[in-house]
Design goal:
- This protein has four helices and four strands; from the N terminus they run H-H-E-H-H-E-E-E.
- It has one domain.
- It starts with a helix and ends in a 6-residue tail after the last strand.
- It is of the alpha+beta class.
- The longest helix has 24 residues, at 2-25.
- The protein has helices at residues 2-25, 53-56, 103-121, 132-139, and strands spanning 71-72, 172-177, 180-185, 198-203.
- It has a four-stranded mixed beta sheet with strand order 1-4-3-2, covered by helices on one side.
Length: 209
């Protein structure tokens, strides 16, 4: 009789455990999931264009025209023969538009000025990429230390403060990211997004704050 009673107790206990297991298995997941943090490869926020947004806007797919391959400018490309005697007014781009150079060489020199600016300030927000005149204003002294990387008397600056290419057309600056700026010349035909356009990308080789 005792054996039967003991067996009954074990059987009831087993049934209770099985019932608890099945009940817990059907409960919804209650554990908190870990928060997803952006990875180191998260793309930085793009710089916003300000003035001349409509004028500088790239064409839609229906209007897209032929564009040449982009050339990445080597960091710190120097202007041959340059000697900087005044660090407050280095007046770069003195050889910009020279007869011995070419359109791509000109844009590489502009890219080197942007790279020097980034290297000195380490703050991409100090370059207001909204129009040609905005970029040149930052490079010509409208910055926290008043450094004139480019002279306001440079013969390739027009009365509006825009940097012209060797064919007399304003350059087009387009921010690809916080530390990459595309510089475009319309080329000899003076028309944007055609086969003879010249494009160089300036990028910072150093981490910025």
């Amino acid at each position: 009789m005792k054996k039967v009673g003991g067996f009954a107790v074990l059987l009831v206990g087993a049934l209770v455990l099985a019932g608890v297991y099945l009940w817990r298995r059907d409960l919804p997941e209650t554990r908190e999931k870990p928060l997803a943090y952006p990875s180191a490869n998260t793309a930085p926020r793009a710089l916003e264009d300000s003035s001349e947004r409509s004028r500088n806007a790239e064409p839609s797919n229906a209007e897209q025209m032929v564009s040449p391959p982009t050339v990445d400018a080597p960091f710190w490309e120097l202007e041959e023969g340059d000697v900087v005697t005044d660090v407050k007014h280095p007046e770069l781009l003195r050889h910009y538009g020279a007869d011995t150079g070419g359109g791509e060489r000109d844009l590489r020199l502009v890219a080197s000025v942007l790279q020097r600016f980034w290297l000195h300030f380490k703050d991409p927000d100090l370059i207001a990429v909204g129009s040609n005149a905005d970029v040149l204003a930052s490079l010509a002294g409208d910055n926290p230390e008043g450094i004139a990387f480019v002279s306001r008397t440079n013969k390739f600056l027009d009365p509006e403060g825009r940097l012209l290419d060797r064919w007399g057309e304003p350059l087009f600056f387009h921010a690809k990211s916080m530390t990459r700026i595309e510089i475009r010349s319309n080329g000899p035909d003076r028309e944007r997004y055609t086969e003879d356009d010249i494009v160089v990308v300036a990028s910072s080789a150093l981490p910025l704050r």
